[in-house]
Specification:
Blueprint (H helix, E strand, L loop, with lengths): L18 E2 L2 E9 L3 E8 L8 E6 L5 H12 L8 E8 L5 E8 L3 E3 H8 L3 H20 L12 E4 L5 E3 L28 H10 L11 H17 L8 E3 L5 E3 L7 H4 L5 H10 L10 H14 L13 H5 L7 H4 L6 H10 L77 E3 L2 E6 L3 H6 L3 E3 L2 E5 L16
Antiparallel strand pairs: 1-2, 2-3, 3-4, 4-6, 5-6, 7-8, 8-9, 10-11, 12-13, 13-15, 14-15
Helix pairs in contact: 3-5, 3-8, 5-7, 7-8
Keywords: ATP-binding, Kinase, Nucleotide-binding, Transferase
Organism: Stigmatella ashevillensis
GO molecular function, one term: kinase activity
Amino acid sequence: MPSPRAPELNPALLPPGTVVGSWRVVSWAGRGVHGVVYQAVPVTDEHAVPTALKLALLPRDSRFAREVELLSRVRHLCIPRLRDSGTWQHPGDTLHPFLVMDWVDGTPLYDWAQQHSPSSQRVLRLLAQLARALQAVHAQGCLHRDVKGDNVLVRHSDGSALLTDFGSGRFPDAATLTPGTLPPGTPAYRSPEACLFELQFFRDPRAHYAAQPTDDLYALGVTAYRLVTGQYLEFGDPIRDASGTWHLEGLVSAAPLALNPSLDPQLNALILRMLSMRPEQRGTAMELACALEQAAQCSSPESTPSCLGPDAAARVGPPTRAPPRQGLFAAAAALMVWIIWVCGSTPLNVPAPPTVVRQESDAAGLEDGGTSGLGDEAVASSVAPSVPSVSGEPAESTLPEPLPGQTRPNAKGRCPHPRQIPLNGGCWVKTSVDREGCEALTGTMIDGNCYVPVATRERQPTSHPVCTP
């Protein structure tokens, strides 16, 4: 097959037959923020079982070297095996790193649950497999830092759950690639301690949250909660004590069993354990895996009918949005939006960072898209931009009408804080979270960015019941 001409080659859309290292592209498989995945086979054996070839969209992207190093340290049946890595030279002479892993023929976790309506026992076994995968990661001193349903595939052949996408992961002594207070990850799955850290130190350029294994376990708990209820967690309002330290009132979301009476009580208890506000109460990945496996053994398919019930499609499809006021604080990421809302007029006395704060040099000189988009320059336009969709996702051409309780621009068309954007009669914060995180924040996706409504400063009643599926 003749090689495509140089101007036709785009790392995001390589045609079949393109050679990358010692691999030949078979087909396009998917795209993320920083890389694109292809099915590929060895150049020397085009009838071999396909592998997953992940190619960097940006030249010399150091994230790939870090992912390769992390995957080379971890081996587990529930983590795709690293097969190869290298650099592909574009005909235009730019160098794009790539890595090759086992191809996982599977379905993303939430989609799989919607299709199969698994029993509580089945969910317990899947969560145990993921906990074992995290145990293997943590045993090497590594972290995943982006555990969520979209990064879990349920393999068709045997129904096993595999933890994928280690692009946000970290291994000991790895260089920091992400500017800002928090490491990369999905806001809706961030732990309470990470969100409080951001709230406490967001103005300190030296502060950088050091994620821990318990952050991964909390994210697994959010994944499980979302899996069996179709909803994201809601935090209570953050409060500041007399010493200037921020605290969370706790989770205001109902227990999974209250939203889903079909749930096994043991599964309910273990999800709540993973979601503990105190990290030490979550235990270790090994302890959690043992508890999940024991709970699965003590149950039986006959005694644990589908934990999703007859309305599974509605429950684990697009997540249920919280009421407008609660939606702004529904996920951990809402705290970051809340910072921008409150810091415009409320002075924060930022104490010196604790021992978990450290300043690390950006050895690669690269920025990670992650969740650092809150500092985007404000837009003075009064209407939302009309733009085409990106990455194959549908884009909405206009923002919805302002929500009840949303901050409105003043008579001059300005919002209370420079980082708030006046659009369509309301004040919004523009972030770079993905679509799933945007939905958790009651936001709207436009041109690949999430526009989140800003709440008014008046405290709303919190005594109304939590929505049920």
